[in-house]
Every structure is written in C-alpha cells, then in structure tokens.
Write a structure and sequence with these properties.
alpha/beta, Rossmann fold, five-stranded parallel β-sheet, two-stranded antiparallel ribbon, binds iron/sulfur cluster, periplasm
Length: 313
C-alpha cells in the first residue's frame, strides 16, 4: 500500500469493544495499513472528541441510545465512506436479542431484579436513555460497505481496508461457512436432535448429519469457519447468507430443518419446532434487522412468548 495517506475515523456505538480489538488483531499487517492511513477519531487510540473530515469511517456497534444516533450521524457527515463493521453494526448483533423484550423488562432484569447490582439506581440521569429497540446503523444513516462478523476475521478486515486504500474491487466471496468446513455432509442415522453437551460428535462428519443444529449453511463466511473445524457447531455470528437475506421465504429455521432432515432420520417439522423453541439462540445475531424481522415466516416474538408461557408445541 502506498501513495497519499487515507484519513480514517472510527467510532463505537452499542457494542462489546471486540470489533475495535479486531482492528489491532491484524498483527503485523497493521503496519501495512498504518503506512497508508492516518488514524484520527478512534476511541481506543486517540482522545479526539470531535469528528474530523475523513476518507473512511468505521462504525462498530448498533444504535441503542441517543449518543449512538448522534455519533453515527456525525460520522456520516464527516466521512466520505462509511463501513458498517461487525455484526452489531450490520444486523444489530447479539444485543439485538433485546428485541424479544420491552425496554422496561430489560431494565428490570439488569438493575431491579439482579442480585449483583444495586436495585435502587436506574442509570437514566447520567447516561443517555436506552432506546426502545436496537437498530442496525443503516436504518439511521447511509452505509457504503458492510463487513459482518463477530468480530470480522483479520483476513476480511485487511482485504476490505486494502480494497478501499488501493481503490480496487474486493476479493471476497458470498460463500456460506460450510464452504470452508472440512466435515463431510453425509446421510446419518440420528433419530433425535442433540444438544451441544450430548455425546461427543465425530469430528469428520457434519454436525447436521449427527443431529446437532449447525448454522454453517445459512451463515456468510466472514470467519474462515473456525468453529466447525475445531469441534463446535456454528451459531451464525457472522450473520445470514445472501440467500437468506434476499429471498423473502427463505428463513434460517426452514433452511436448516430441511437440510438436516435430509441428512438424518429426524423429520423437518420436529427440527423446525426445535428451532422456534430456541429462537433466541438461532436468531441471536440478526433478529434486530428488518431484513430478518419482516420475513413472512418470522414470528420470533411469538415463539419466545409461547416458550415463556409454556404453550409452544
Ligand atoms: S460484532 Fe461482535 S465483536 Fe463486534 S462489537 Fe458486536 S458483539 Fe462485539
Ligand atoms: S452445517 Fe456445519 S458442520 Fe455441516 S458442513 Fe456446514 S459448517 Fe460444517
Ligand atoms: S463458524 Fe459460525 S459461529 Fe464460528 S465464527 Fe464463523 S460464523 Fe461465527
């Protein structure tokens, strides 16, 4: 990378900080980036409170407070290109699961009825108020580039920054996690759904073939498939594939249940019901995005409410 230095702003909204850590996780490649980039506003590296004019703006996290909204709008005004960086920014992320509950229920759970916090203080006077919902950033500002992942893998971070710095097309695929997984998807004889702690899965065979739910086939590969290649089923942290997002009637639970039923002796309806009962897990990373929430097959609030009322089949 060479030539005139690119001015970079970053900011974090409602998030865990992991995406900013991932930027540093470029290891020695960060030196290549720093040759070409001047870092300006960046909450983990600089103490610049305002938002200087910049070529690239990286936003991590989603919008849950007035502060988040203000920061996103300021970044949009000052940055030529905005990257929604990480699953929280792109789809709302894990805390998007707050969609399943009202703001008051969340505050009650975290502050009033939590044995490890003081129950007489609700932090609404000194910090900006919690918004009603978690909002992915492109519902508030225009976004130019999306880089999902929780956090994105350094390979994809470097590629996306290099793409912008070198002004070229990105070399990334839209493959699912399965494309990088070494496990064989073969017909198995599992007759019941297994939970993570049930038995020891064969590490050469697809989790689905063995009766374990794995979201690799409905998840975009922005991670190089570390989980299934190291003994853990994919939970979908990089967000859904383009097919799931763009085709109205394709849904995470219907896709996985159809595929898993073909690979086992378990019928698709049983798997679908299981996916609904565990919807908070299966949809954890992307339930706040309208692309998932507005699907005709999607009734997550009802599924969760039915489970909590003990009436889900
Ligand atoms: S996408 Fe994941 S790593 Fe990044 S801020 Fe959100 S929770 Fe943290
Ligand atoms: S479903 Fe999971 S275990 Fe099976 S091939 Fe895909 S990523 Fe691998
Ligand atoms: S394999 Fe799945 S859960 Fe693991 S990092 Fe990739 S997307 Fe996330």
């Amino acid at each position: 990378m060479s030539g005139e230095k690119i001015r970079l702003n970053t900011d974090w909204l409602c998030d865990c900080g992991g995406c900013h850590v991932a930027l540093v996780d470029l290891h020695e490649k960060i030196l290549n980036v720093l040759e070409s980039v001047t870092i300006q506003h960046c909450p983990v590296l600089t103490d610049i409170k305002d938002y200087p004019e910049a070529d690239i703006g990286i936003l991590t996290g989603s919008i849950r407070t007035e502060h988040d909204r203000h920061a996103a709008e300021e970044m949009r005004k000052k940055c030529k290109t905005i990257i929604a960086f990480g699953t929280c920014a792109v789809y709302g992320g894990l805390h998007g699961a707050g969609l399943a509950h009202s703001r008051e229920e969340i505050i009650d759970h975290v502050y009033r009825h939590n044995p490890t916090t003081r129950t007489d203080i609700i932090p609404d006077a000194e910090v900006t108020e919690l918004a009603k919902m978690v909002t992915p950033i492109d519902e508030v500002i225009d976004v130019d580039l999306y880089l999902p992942g929780c956090p994105p893998h350094p390979h994809f971070i470097f590629e996306s920054l290099a793409t912008l710095i070198e002004k070229r097309q990105p070399r990334v695929t839209q493959d699912p996690v399965c494309a990088r997984c070494q496990r064989a998807m073969i017909k198995g004889d599992a007759s019941a759904i297994r939970n993570t702690l049930d038995g020891v899965p064969d590490d050469a065979i697809c989790f689905l073939s063995q009766g374990y739910v794995c979201l690799g086939s409905v998840t975009l590969d922005r991670c190089l498939a570390p989980c299934p290649n190291h003994g853990v089923a994919c939970t979908g942290c990089a967000g859904p594939t383009m097919q799931i997002l763009t085709e109205p009637n394709r849904d995470i639970r219907t896709e996985v249940s159809d595929r898993m039923s073909r690979l086992t002796a378990i019928d698709a309806e049983t798997i679908k019901r299981h996916m609904e009962r565990t919807a908070k897990t299966q949809y954890a990373y992307a339930m706040a995005t309208k692309m998932i929430g507005s699907k005709p097959t999607f009734l997550i609030r009802k599924w969760i409410a039915d489970v909590e009322a003990g009436t889900h089949g």
